[in-house]
Amino acid sequence: MTQHLSGELKWWQSGIIYQIYPRSYQDTGGDGVGDLRGITQRLPYVASLGVTAVWLSPIFKSPMRDFGYDVADYCDIDPLFGTLDDFAALVAEAHRLGLKVMLDYVPNHTSDEHAWFQEALRGKDSSKRDWYVWRDPAPGGGLPNNWKSFFGGPAWTLDPASGQYYLHQFLPTQPDLNWRNPVVRQAMFDVLRFWMKRGVDGFRVDVIWLLAEDERFLDEPANPDWKPGEVEHNSVLHVYTQDQPETHQYIREMRQVLDEFDDRMMVGEIYLPLDQLLPYAGTPDAPMVHLPFNFHLIQLPWDAHAIREFADRYDAASRAAGAWPNWVLGNHDQHRFKSRVGAAQYRVAQTLLLTLRGTPTVYYGDEIGMQDVPIPFEQMVDPAGLQQPDSPAAGRDPERTPMQWDASPNAGFTSAQARPWLPLAGDAAEINVAAQEADPRSDLNYFRALTRLRADFPALVRGEYRSLDTEFDDVLAFERTTATEQLVVLLNFGPLARELGSLVSGSTLLSSLGDQPEAAAPLRPNEARIIKR
Ligand code: GLC
């Protein structure tokens, strides 16, 4: 059935994206850090999940100050992860298994160790000076303006040799590229071509909404809603550093490069409200990203009413804009969704992600119900946490811990003698792939049941979405329909059984509680149920 879909929908529309954080998936080298050979070894597992594409967080040469989001060479693999040959083997194995491969493209900034920045540092006359964003000190001396780094402190660092400051929206070791410079754009577009020629099917594009800054370099206005104790970056409104018109233009150009090759795609990391988000899909004449990441399931309160209201608006707006929708519950920058919504709601959330209209993106380990791992300050390695000790939630280590494969000493992630780069979850001996493979009622097999339903019932993939009224605030109900199929998804966000009456005729295809209740039986506390009418 998935076969005949492919004629109508592209893989990135009908499929599911699975994000792997390479440091944490599988180590084969015994250094406690995951690598490409490890990922390749585990690809049959990935395929067994019923997902379509793997997105790898950055694997390029990097000093790893931001764990690979600080790239020193876009066209080489960091030795920590392997070699270009290892990558070729990974792509070949993925394709053999019918999986697409997506890389993480980091265009906004390089590492300070990138040869381009090293050249730029040679002085104002350097041929690459204008590849980065430089400003003189303010008239009275000091920072050029009040722009802030996402990781705390100013977005400017002084280069003492030239007396100028360079811009970095993240760490001082992550200087921002100057996208206004057409030569920079060409160099960065060549990076895309380099990887597409090596068989890469798509890209997740890092902080794509930050590419351009306003040329006047004015101070950003104070954010009236900001309270002391919240991350400093939010103390101003980012009207001059985010979502600039030029950024839209650069993305249109980027898209033309993708379109030089067959069937490639990009998904953009964009944390913006709906009205600013959807324009990133572009128009039929001037397309931009294939999928502008929709992070609202992460940001909204976990509340049936709020989610219904958003899903209705998003579905209608996507349709009107001609954009294909997508949904995300977790990634390497966000606390694990099971920790956010609570264990009781875990399967409700998973069901929602995989049954709403649009492409789901799944974060590794969420399919077995991995949770945040508490990391004491002494063991913290994430710069976002280390630089902002007053905002403990800013640290991203808890959601980046090693994949839990089995009950052996390092959970099968690395050899028993090795020291994993981040500690394993305390419950890894119980919560792991091997244990869950053996249990038909496990979270892992529930995940597979959901992906199987998507394969068996095209309505879940390409059907219309319509939310349904119930008399209960804590129930989210919606249908997914094609001309020949009508499925109803019922999600109980609360701890009380709910009698839904006539809404639920038909037969139950799947219940999150692991049995097969009558479709019309009351929806039990925290139950997700999928019904075929
Ligand atoms: C994105 C990445 C994040 C990284 C930042 C800087 O938000 O997801 O992990 O720290 O960009 O590249």
CATH class of the largest domain: Alpha Beta
What's the CATH architecture name of the largest domain? Alpha-Beta Barrel
Integer-rounded radius of gyration: 23 Å
| Helix content percent band | 25-40%
Overall shape: it is globular
The CATH superfamily of the largest domain turns out to be Glycosidases
Number of domains: 3
Give me the number of helical elements: 16
Beta-strand percent range? 5-15%
Low-confidence stretches: 1-6
> Which structural class do the helices and strands define?
alpha/beta
How many strands? 18
Roughly how many Å apart are the termini? 19 Å
Please explain how this structure is put together:
This protein is α/β, with parallel strands linked by helices and 533 residues long. The protein folds into three domains: 326 residues, TIM Barrel (Alpha-Beta Barrel), CATH 3.20.20.80; 53 residues, Oligo-1,6-glucosidase, Domain 2 (Oligo-1,6-glucosidase, domain 2); 69 residues, Golgi alpha-mannosidase II (Immunoglobulin-like, Sandwich), CATH 2.60.40.1180. Helix content is 26%, strand content 15%. It is built from 16 helices and 18 strands. Strand 9, helix 7 and strand 10 form a beta-alpha-beta unit. Helix 6 packs parallel to helix 7 and helix 12 runs parallel beside helix 15. The relative contact order is 0.10. The N terminus is likely disordered. Bound molecules: alpha-D-glucopyranose. Alpha-D-glucopyranose binds next to loops.
